[in-house]
Amino acid sequence: MNTKKNYKFYVLALIxxxxxxxxxxxxxxxxxxxxxxxxxxxxxxxxxxxxxxSTRLYQQSIFNSLWISLxxxxxxxxxxxxxxxAMSNATxxxxxxxxxxxxxxxxFAGVPLAxxxxxxxxxxxxxxxxxKNYGIDFLANFDLYTINGLLxxxxxxxxxxxxxxxxxxxxxxxxxxxxxxxxLGGNSFHYWFKVxxxxxxxxxxxxxxxxxxxxxxxxxxxxxxxxxxxxxLPIRISQQFVGEVVQNQEFGCALSLVMMALMVIxxxxxxxxxxxxxxxx
Amino acid sequence: xKLKTHLWDGLILFIIAAFLIVPLALTFLYxxxxxxxxxxPTGFTLQFYTQIxxxxxFINSLLRSLVISFVPVCICxxxxxxxxxxxxxxxxxxxxxxxxxxxxxxxxxxxxxxVGIISLYSGKPGFLSNRLFLLVGAYCIIxxxxxxxxxxxxxxALNVKCVIEAAQVLGCSQLHAFFTIIxxxxxxxxxxxxxxxxxxxxxDFVVVNMIAGSAFRTAGIYLYQTMSKSGQLSSxxxxxxxxxxxxxxxxxxxxxxxxxxxxxxx
Lengths: 281, 266
Description:
The complex is a heterodimer of chains A (281) and B (266).
Chain A: H1 2-36, H2 47-54, H3 56-89, H4 92-105, H5 110-121, H6 126-133, H7 137-140, H8 147-170, H9 175-183, H10 188-217, H11 220-226, H12 233-239, H13 249-277
Helix pairs in contact in A: 1-13, 2-3, 3-8, 3-10, 4-8, 5-11, 8-10, 9-10, 10-13, 12-13
Chain B: H1 2-31, E1 33-35, E2 42-44, H2 47-54, H3 56-89, H4 94-107, H5 111-121, H6 131-156, H7 160-169, H8 174-185, H9 187-202, H10 206-211, H11 219-227, H12 231-265
Helix pairs in contact in B: 1-12, 2-12, 3-6, 3-9, 3-11, 4-6, 5-6, 6-9, 7-8, 9-12, 11-12
């Protein structure tokens, strides 16, 4: 009797979770797949994908998205690595101060971040004006409203996230390894490139994949900075649903499926590389 | 030699910190001065802040943001706690499947999730096409991975089975024991997980912009609409939003640290 009552209860307890997941995760996901292969009005088709991979506009958006995500993740991870390394050598006081900076700025992204860079480097931005007034061409001619400007803002939000993720892994480096390398006649180049980096590689790759996905999905910054004037996947997708362009739901779903595939592929590649490189646990 | 490396590390950290702080600090300065045509701004003023706080539209949008971020966090945490209860006590096998379901949102971040939900429900009759209902649902999915991981780690640190068995021996029912013994012990973990999820939703722009748009003006949407009108007003809004997030995340860190210290003492 008691077990039966319990059984009833725990089926009941699972219901809220499964309703949420079904309604807002599983069904929408299935719907994206179905609609990507649907014609307006019904019937199976692959024309949306043919259009995506044969139209310059959409090829460009895939290329730009991949390029921006890769580049900002690589630069982000290099800077994060350098920062985390410097932090692991710093005194506790400096370390906690820098951690505060990271925690504060990791909340600074999206539309507010785009706006801050407009104030700084936009057409009448502070640094731009200073550049003009004092003849610093680099600042005066920097055009924020291009893919380069966008890259700068993306790199900005990658740094705090990347460093916060890299920080704990530096604790895994043992002092003895460095001494061992020294005893065997190696220098710090040997230590970093033959011992430390290879052993940290799985964690570095994991962080890289987080940064990549983060940049690929980012929308607010690009939308606020360039509105619809930049060809990246999230912008092209949202355009199919909101805004002045003729709305095309099925095509939007197909674009989303392509973006989802990129996400999944990047996760799979990272998993595979992580397994291959092994490293220390 | 030792001193030199320290200087070098300090310099690196200083440069990176400066790069991170400058845009933020300038946004703040921009909001309290009337003009900025040379190196230094001129005309200190707080008029933009008074303007915002006397403008009912902004206050309303801020309240909307707070509510729409808070409600999904509560729903999602409650649903996950129930699942964790069943999972730890009766059906450990369930974990594998729940884990998969909770990791899917990583692959359907932001725009993809919004597309899935709009394309499925928009134009459908009844409450299903209610934009607020959809927004709450989408928000539950966005925070799902983080909430699940946070709560699972918290519950994992406790010896749930033993405690519940002990309570049963003393004549307490399992469910009663779970809510009066386990949940209070998890309090710090639950609160910090919920706050983290809250700050994520509070910063959202993409999902609310696609699902609700100007029909439900949150602070993020309000900021976007103000941006083209007034630079100083926008930066004042950013500062206010930022301070809100900052307070919440500082409190979260404090709670987390307290939890660590407490656990260390035990």
